[in-house]
Amino acid sequence: MVFAGVLIGIVVGAIPGLNGAIGISLLLPLTFTMEPQIGLLLLGGIYMGGMYGGSITAILINVPGDVVAAPVAMEGYPLTQQGRAKEALYYSIFSSMFGGFIGVMILIFFTPPLARLALQFGPAEMFFVSLSGLIVVGALSGSYLKAAFAVLFGLFISTIGIDMITGSERFTFGSVDLRSGISVVPVVLGLFCFAEMFLNIGKKPSEQVKYRDQNISRTSVLTSILKARFLVWKSGLIGTVVGLLPGVGTTLAVFMSYGEAKRVSKQPGLFEKGNPEGIIAAESANNATVGSSMVPLLALGVPGSPTSAIIAGALVIHGIILGPSLFVNRPDVAYTFLYGMLLTVVAMTIIGAVGIKYFSYILKIRMEYIVPTVLVFALFGAYSLRNSLFDVLIALVLGIAGAIFKKIEVPLAPIIIGVVLGPLIETNLARAMRIAGARDVPLVQYMLSSPLAIGLLIMVLVLLVVVVQMRRKTG
């Protein structure tokens, strides 16, 4: 069941616009007839496999299967263009293996204390964490003006719709469809998937990236990753900590790890040109969030991500009460799931490593067949999120914009992170203002009322100084 779940997760994750959460939703009814342990591990396998699957199409054709695979596309596709597709895929699967292992081991040994840590994050702490992620974006991009435009464009998109705090409409221009806002999925599909396919329309076969049968061994890639073990551990820990925070999601962890990898790299100029360090950082953080997002779910009954929320629904249907009592009343379910998640990492590694030879054959397919196929899946992915043709229209419009941005070298990653973090920054700041008003204290006093918040503020300021210094050195 674990191997079946991982395989399904990889396939679903590789399809543009789909992800592990959709795969779990589709197979959730199937688990009702299974024993709880078996059903949970099937869903856990889909979760783990889906996190890795998005990197396959991101590396081979520059089309991320999911939002979290965007940084991998920025490094993996340039390697593919250099004839190093298999090498990039090996970096992806083995980094995912190490990240998944770190996340699951932390899930097994540190579930209670980490769950208590997650409860310490109030609006002030969440505001500073989100702000630090936005600052890291400054280390991802080219010129100051283009990076600033990209961030502001992403933040603007995030403000469209009904304000969740005040209930007022913003930038809807009388459109009913815009009241619910613009989801991050059509944004990613537009900027990456549609834009890349639009740019490939009309290309001659001689201009297509060719398949090259690389003479690259798994051992050499593993050795390179082990040499970068500090980067793996740091990215895995970033993924673990951010994955603990309910509502933050994996995207912030991936971009923070990617930005930190660039900040400490001895060759930051190679990023976005095919630097394996970017793949290692992003994939390690990506799969580490799988285990950590389960920590508040199992220990407190609070889902750490949309995917873990669906898994929580499966447990409830089986009559299992989540929280501290789970380990007392149903230890068979709790511990089978904890240790079984290690098997999902093993299954993902085996399927991924063996399948790389066959994944690479995608490059042998002519572009006139790839473009319509990918566009169909992308259209389906944009529509399936909310069953809305308006989301398809948004993806198409942003696809045209994304193609233009690529031509004039406006970075796309800051736009994505702006869309993701905009609501978090705004909502948590608004909540902090309301709490401060209710307590009749100044906002600054409330924001700095806990040692954790002060520490996070110091981290934000340090990041800001480091990023500015780094940009000056790199010109």
- Number of E strands: 2
Distance between the termini: 52 Å
Our count of helices gives: 20
What helical percentage do the residues reach? over 70%
Helix-strand string: HHHHHHHEEHHHHHHHHHHHHH
How many whole angstroms does the radius of gyration measure? 21 Å
Determine the structural class based on helices, strands and strand pairing: mainly alpha
Average pLDDT taken over every residue: 80
Give the biggest beta sheet: 2 strands, antiparallel
Please state roughly what percent of the residues sit in beta strands, choosing from under 5%, 5-15%, 15-25%, 25-35%, 35-45% or over 45%: under 5%
Number of domains: 1
Shape: globular
Q: What are the segments in which pLDDT stays under 50 over at least 5 consecutive residues?
A: none
Which strands sit side by side, in order, in the main sheet?
1-2
Give structural notes.
This protein has 475 residues and is mainly alpha-helical. It has one domain. Helices cover 73% and strands 1% of the residues. It has helices at 2-14, 20-27, 36-61, 70-81, 85-119, 123-136, 144-159, 184-200, 218-227, 229-244, 250-264, 276-300, 306-317, 326-329, 331-359, 367-384, 389-407, 413-439, 443-447, 451-474, and strands at 161-162, 169-170. The protein has a two-stranded antiparallel ribbon with strand order 1-2. It is globular. The mean pLDDT is 80.
